[in-house]
Amino acid sequence: MAYLAYYREFWNCLLAPDEHRHEVGEDVTGCYNCNLEGLADKMSKFELACWNWYCDNVSPFALEAGIVGEMFRGEGLVGGIKAMFLSAMNSIYQAMNFIQADMQRKAAEGAHG
Questions:
Q1: Is residue 51 a contact partner of residue 41, using CB atoms and an 8 Å limit?
Q2: What residues contact residue 53 under an 8 Å CB cut-off, 6+ apart?
Q3: Domain containing 59: what range?
Q4: Are 93 and 100 in contact (CB under 8 A)?
Q5: What gap in Å lies between CA 85 and CA 47, rounded to an integer?
Q6: In whole angstroms, what is the distance from residue 67 CA to residue 77 CA?
Q7: pTM of whole model > 0.90?
Q8: How many C-beta atoms surround the C-beta of residue 76 within 10 A?
Q9: Within a domain: 2
Q10: Where does the pLDDT of residue 13 fall: very low under 50, low under 70, confident under 90, or very high at 90 and above?
Q11: Which of the 8 DSSP states describes residue 43?
């Protein structure tokens, strides 16, 4: 999930499915579309559901307004599923924070370098 969090920074650069094409034999290692699709294909249904929930519900506004907890409680999760979901949310949140801090550090180094 951490790799998806990294590539999430570039989602605004992604092509629509009908625009995403490659020539036969073309190197696609730098293609954000292909990277995201490949990473998402490796996720379990549960991981993908967690990732989608996070992306759909957790934003700077939602965090600052304190409404994420209400949305989470509205899901009605209990027991082990709740614990697994919270663990996944925590992992995604930590990955996003780590990546954001790393990108800010690199930008600051570039500005001073």
A1: no
A2: 75, 85, 89
A3: 44-112
A4: no
A5: 9
A6: 17
A7: no
A8: 8
A9: no
A10: low
A11: S
Alpha-carbon span 10 to 67, nearest angstrom:
26
> Percent of the chain scored above 90 by pLDDT?
28
**What's the number of domains the chain is made of?**
1
CA separation (Å) from 34 to 6, 10, 25, 27, 107? 14, 12, 14, 11, 26
What are the pLDDT digits (tens) for 79-97? 999 999 999 999 988 888 8
Q: Please check the confidence at residue 2 and state whether its pLDDT lies above 60.
A: no
Task: Please state, in angstroms and rounded to a whole number, the distance separating the CA atoms of residues 104 and 60.
Answer: 17
Give me the residue label for tokens 């990546």: 99
Q: What is the DSSP letter of 21?
A: -
How many secondary structure helices (H) and strands (E) does the chain include? 6, 0
Residue listed under structure tokens 């790393």: 102
Mean of pLDDT over the chain: 82
